[in-house]
Amino acid sequence: MHVSRWLSPAGRRPSELAEDAGISRQAMSDLLTELEGLGYVKRIPDPSDARARLIIPAERGYAADAILQAFWRSRELQLREQYGDARVNDVSEIILAYREAVK
Predict the structure, then answer these.
(1) 3-state class (DSSP) for residue 102
(2) Which residues, listed in sequence order, are joined to residue 53 by a DSSP beta bridge?
(3) What is the pLDDT of residues 19-67, one digit of tens each?
């Protein structure tokens, strides 16, 4: 699962990430443990609650996200060349509307 879109440099609680991803807290916890072990995220103390932890991207996570963003920009350019700006814009609007509707 690609979680970087829900991360923030300021940090987010695992429960917030689970809600945004539409998965259980336990599933998110398992995923974050794996991602932390691989060096993609870090857990830091929450300054507003000493008992809680925040999840932030690690250096490796930022690097992976940059690669992913470059890939998607490249793919979008290919689609625009193949189908034209108007059609790609229409599909983008539909996808965004769908994402908002299923939140």
Answers:
(1) coil
(2) 45
(3) 988 899 999 999 999 999 999 999 999 999 989 999 999 999 999 989 9
Q: Residue 54 gets which letter from DSSP?
A: E
Long-range CB contacts (< 8 A, 24+ apart) of 58-62? 61/4, 61/7, 61/35
Q: Note the Cα 99 to chain centre separation in Å.
A: 14
| Sole residue written with tokens 């300021």 | 10
Dmax (CA) for the chain in angstroms is 53
Spatial distance between the Cα atoms of 92 and 12, rounded to a whole number of angstroms: 27
Q: Residue 28: is it exposed, middle or buried by C-beta count within 10 angstroms (0-12/13-18/19+)?
A: buried
Q: List 29's β-bridge partners, or say none.
A: none
Cα separations in angstroms, 10 against 14, 24, 37, 40, 101: 13, 23, 20, 15, 27
pTM, two decimals, is 0.75
